[in-house]
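Help!! Second protein's tokens look totally different from the first
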Amino acid sequence: MAPNDRDWLAARFEEHRARLRGIAYRMLGSTTEADDAVQDAWLRLNRSDSSEVENLGGWLTTVVSRLCLDALRSRASRREDSMEVHLPDLVVSGSGEASPEHEAELAESVGVALLVVLDTLTPAERLAFVLHDTFGLPFDQIARIVDRSPTATRQLASRARRRVRGSVAPTDVSPARQRELIDAFIAAARGGDFEALLRILAPGIVARADTGVGPSPLGPSRVIRGSEAVARQALAFRQLAPNARPAIVNGAAGLVVFAAGRPFAVLGFEFRGDQIVELDILAAPDRLARLDLSLVVAPGA
């Protein structure tokens, strides 16, 4: 590397920031924690003798990966068994043109269903899968991060890959059709049309609601399975349907629901076979407050 010039070093770091944030978001499922990990990597770089770093990108990837691995291990040890569902942070943009910053953020996002599955993996499995299958790092490099042999690291990624392939399938529904399905979902909920909802929802649909701690109009965090149960839940809150606004949620068509002019919930959808197969509802007030929803137009705005 060049002499230890801070302006030069900051410029080189910025060249890697988006990639590092993408790794951290996939590892942690939290935009806030991802930003913290990237910032911590920058602080460590500032404290180090950068003239001895031959491969800055590799050095930063290793630092961020180890920070994420430590965070995942800490999270696993303290997560309460009583919490039935915890959704990842969602990346939200307006349904129209996004700013370059939002376009970059959406490019770093990944489907909610994949993030949910990744959250079921062990920390080492998740890291091996993310770094190898998504970012193309060789197993010998990943092995040094997880403190395993390359063969054992390859096995970690293989186990993770089987879990992902068995749970997450690529969508075969075009963006335009996704929006049509969501529009039909909102119209059916607003009109109290139970049969119309059943036509839109796949029989085996899974709906996850993360309402955070404390009382919520949506009830406690939980998982709802089956089209009839999900349809009944949609009808129960149909008064909110008129205040739902289109958005892009983790790269797919979604919704932001408002109540009294304030964000009430973000809805992410997964589509397959011309139906909705998964519905993820983030309604934890503290986490909604951290989301950038500036490109979603609130009712009456």
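Here's the second one for comparison:
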Amino acid sequence: MADSAVASTKASSKKSIAWRPWIRAIHRDAGYIVVGLTFIYALSGIAVNHLTDWSDGDASFQSYTQTYELGPMTGTDDEIAARVKEKLHITKETREVYRRSDDELDVTLDKRSLHINAKTGQVVDEGQKPRFFLRVANWLHLNRGKKAWTYVADTYAAILLFLSLSGMLMIPGKRGFFFRGAILVGLGIAVPVLYVTFSGPT
């Protein structure tokens, strides 16, 4: 009878933890799915957190200045502006063309300005160009895309919540949540709580 009771207890115990392999499998696959998004959000978050460390205070764009010698130009302001854009292979729409002096002409475009000396033909091209990858990463992170991205971001957040919860339940025993895990979770929660307590808004 005793052996039968022990066997029954073991069988019951195995049934009670049969869900752990499923949790581990789903946790693993969900983690694979969000690797790309996690990389984007993490890299963008670091970049945005250190805006003052960028030379021009912008993590998405970097400033540049280039000088060209195109030769003397004549004609109306619009004609000169069009000729310069053609020679520099600029297709962006012109926002404004105005004279700074008899010889100097400024052409304003989106995130770009052309300072033209019609007499000498010197053109100074000043503007901003997107930083490789960071421009797109920040655009996605700050949710400046279409409304559809909101659903993607919400789904990503939900998967992260699942990963957090399932991670606490995957491993039984002393290395699981109810011993070592609880201590580590407590430490993780303590970081924002202590920061807000001692340095947060008042």
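Reply: Different proteins will give different token patterns, so don't panic. The chain has two domains: 19-55+133-197, 63-130.
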